[in-house]
Every structure is written in structure tokens, then in C-alpha cells.
Amino acid sequence: MKFILQPWQLFFIIIAGWVNRQQQEVIEYLRIENQVLKEKHGKKRILLNDDQRRRLAVKGKILGRKRLEQVGTLFTPDTILRWHKKLVTMKWDCSNRGKRKSGRPRLPDEVKQLVIQIAKENSSWGYDRIADAVANVGYKISDESVRKILKEQGLEPAPDRKRQTSWNTFLKAHWEVLAAIDFTTVEVWTKGGLVTFYLLFVIELKTRRSHFTGCTMNPHDIWMKQIARNLTDEDEGFLREKQKLIMDRDTTFSESFQMILNQSDTKPIVLPPRSPNLNAFIERFFRSLKSECLDRMIFFGENSLRNAIKEYMTHYHVERNHQGLNHQIIEPGEEVGQSAGEIECRERLGGLLNYYYRKAA
Q1: Overall pTM surpassing 0.70 (yes/no)
Q2: Where in the numbering of this chain does the Integrase catalytic domain appear (predicted)?
């Protein structure tokens, strides 16, 4: 009796043959790839870790010696099977079971970082108090462990750390009453040619609110003393509620200038030499002022300069988002956050400064 293939059986055989051919081509490619890798590696021994040997041993045992000889190129079948035998032996090796490891378990990195953070932010805290603070958030740690962690980081015990208060800690402690002052310069075309103008600004560190105190070609002592009186005026002075004013060692901030500040209970904080990073807030303000306004314009006369600064300061306070304030506006208007109304653009300085808002219906 003749066996007649059904169409579906013939189709199945064709598909199976095609799949088998595809698999053989993949295997052949992998064999060639392994051979190339082996030739590239040369006669040097290929070093594997335990996990890599385990994976090869498990898969190699499934294939068996005969098929390993057909597809394996990097390692011999005996090597693969020897690894598998070792895995089996390790599985049934009970010699280390039930033994308790000596010593205390290692502290997680998260706990170590928390200890370091607390020590840096609280210079007067001792080991016990730091350990208690860590315990309050769910981590049990001894004072001796705290001591070891701080010693590894080069952090001194509490009495020494207390005498080494960081600049960041100082700023945070006086956040509400702290301001900074500094000069920047800009070139202006005048009848006498290109002239350097000195621009003096003050900034509140907490709010980032800034104040343009004035500009001059010669910041002499008389001009500076008048600036000090304006800043400390009891009614409208920008520094009337500030107790400390950060400044650099520029001789323009003369003794008479500082004396007027002291008389109004605003203590000058003079920075060490060559330390611009300690006045980073006003330096960051200057970078924005220059990149967004001063460096993009040519000024003809003092009036054009003052007008540009006036426009920028309005934009800075009521229209510009600030990263240091969590992307908020210093003095936001009522239109901020509205979801209804037509979107409009308010331009300043001929489109150099743009503000997008919704017009109230």
C-alpha cells in the first residue's frame, strides 16, 4: 500500500527542513565566530569566572559529548563536562552548611552615606548622637561604627568639626539675613570713545532678589559712601533687614563704606583672598545678566545702559524662572499658571528677553 502525503504534511516537512537549515546556519556562524575569537586570543588561556563556567557547564551537559564536539570550539567537551561534575559535587558538599560566619556584617553603603551626611551637617554632634539620629530612620548602628566611618572619611571628632564650620553651613545658618555685593563691568561707547562702566549689584541669597545700586566710570570713596547710605536707609534701603553683607577684598569697599554698614547693624563679611566661589550667588547672577543681556548688546551712552539694565531687572524678577528656586519666578504675576486664555509673548529689549503668558479673558 502506497503512503500518500497530505498537503499539510508536505508543508510541515518543508517548514521543518527550512527551520533545521536555519538552525544549522546559525550554529555554523557561531562556530566560525568562536574560532575567530580563539585565533584572536592566541595561545593565551581564556580565564572565566565561576558564573561563566556554570552557565557553560549547564548548557554543555544538556548537549552531551557528541554534540559538543560538533559545535564547541573554545573549550573541549571534557572541560565542559568536568565543570558540570564539579557543580554536582559542590551541590552535595555540606561541609560549610550550618557554620556561622565570624565578624559583624558589613554596613550598607546607604547607612555609611547617611552617617557622613549627618556628621557634615551637624558639626557639634558626637558619635552617640549621630548613631541615635541614624536609629530614628530605621538603621541600628553603634557609636563605634560611627567613629570608624568618620575616621575612614577623614572627619574629625565633634570638638574639632565644630571648629571647622563649612561655608555652606554658615550660609544656611544666616539664610534669612544674608546678602552679597559685588561689581561687574561693561564697555560703553561715549563721546570720548569706549569707556568702562562699573555696575554695582546686591543680591538676597535666600530669595535671589537683586538690586542695581548704580553705575559709574569711577567708583571713588564719596560715591561708595552714598551707595552705603542708600542701601541702609531705614525706609527704602535694600539692606534695611539684612544683618550680614558678603563682599570681596576689593579696595573699593573701603573702611568708610564698611563703617556706614556697621552703623546700621549690617556687618560686612570680607572674603579671603582669591575665593570667588565663596560669593557664588552673585557670580551666578552676573553670568545670567551678561549672557542674556550685556554681552548681546552694544551700548551708546549711559542712558542706553541704564535702560537695558532696568528692562533686564524687571524680566529677572517677574518673568524669569530660576533653577535655584525650583524653577519658580521670584515675583510671579497673577497670570502665572493660568490654563485658559490666548497665549501671548511679552518682548523686552527688541526680543532679546521674551515672556510667554495667557492673556486674561
Answers
A1: no
A2: 155-340
